[in-house]
Amino acid sequence: MGSAVETLIRSSVAKGMEAIADFNRKRLDDAEPHPFLTGAHRPMDRELTLTDLPVTGSIPPALDGRYLRIGPNPAKPDPAGYHWFTGDGMVHGLKLQDGKALWYRNRWIRSKAVGSALGLEPAPGPRNGSFDTVNTNVVDVAGRTFALVEAGGTPVELSDTLEAQSYNPFDGTLQGGFTAHPHLDPLTGEQHAICYEGTRPDEVRHVVVGRDGGGAEARRRGA
């Protein structure tokens, strides 16, 4: 790893490049509809709770549980500067049981930006720095549901109905950010993750999350 001075310089350069990229995106011609804010990519503008959904045909009884997805869905998009990788996270859920579709729900991940845009209290819990948009993946860790993002964000734990949310660094054991793509070891029940911070390009961490969803441990660290 580099020295503290090198890390500071790299971080400053990365932030400067990000600011320049954001400035240049806002200078793009907006005469045409934004491709990621229109058509099939048009953001959902509300949270829904739909119950006892009609079913065409039949649902196999073996499909019993929740189907969850997450992706960028900006609460108040600015077409002049929008990049679809950075849109606010929205998680969608479908609950199936006994051949029935019991409910569909969609909920924004309540980052500070979403709270400000919608007039809501942001989800509680510690953030890893100022970066708290979570929009990339949603996974099961030890029977608990976590929304994840790449490049250093803190996981967000969700309740079964998606109503309760909290930024949760695996019960306080995660040092730094996490990844959106952990991998389960079927023999040990541990989750293995290769993690990095977007502002630290010379550092990678191998993090292992215990089978109980806690005990996150950085086992390897280096440039």
Task: Describe what is shown at a glance.
The chain has 223 residues and is α+β, with helices and mostly antiparallel strands.
Walk me through this protein's architecture.
The protein is an alpha+beta fold and 223 residues long. The chain has two helices and twelve strands; from the N terminus they run αββββαββββββββ. A four-stranded antiparallel sheet has the order 1-4-3-2, with no helix packed on it. It has a four-stranded antiparallel sheet with strand order 5-6-7-8, with no helix packed on it. A four-stranded antiparallel sheet has the order 9-10-11-12, with no helix packed on it. Strand 9 (183-184) and strand 10 form a beta hairpin.
Key terms:
single chain; about 220 residues; alpha+beta; four-stranded antiparallel beta sheet
Beta strand %: 25-35%
The overall pLDDT average reads 84
Which ranges are low-confidence, i.e. pLDDT below 50, for 5 or more consecutive residues?
Answer: none
What percentage of residues falls in helices of 4 or more residues? 10-25%
Structural class: alpha+beta
How are strands sequenced across the largest beta sheet? Answer: 1-4-3-2
Oligomer: single chain
Largest sheet: 4 strands, antiparallel
Distance N terminus to C terminus? 5 Å
Summed up, the helix count is 2
Task: Count the E strands.
Answer: 12
Radius of gyration using CA atoms only:
19 Å
The ordered H/E elements are: HEEEEHEEEEEEEE
Principal-axis shape = globular
Describe the secondary structure blueprint for this structure.
Elements: H1 4-26, E1 49-53, E2 65-72, E3 89-97, E4 100-108, H2 112-118, E5 137-141, E6 144-148, E7 156-158, E8 165-167, E9 183-184, E10 191-195, E11 204-209, E12 217-222
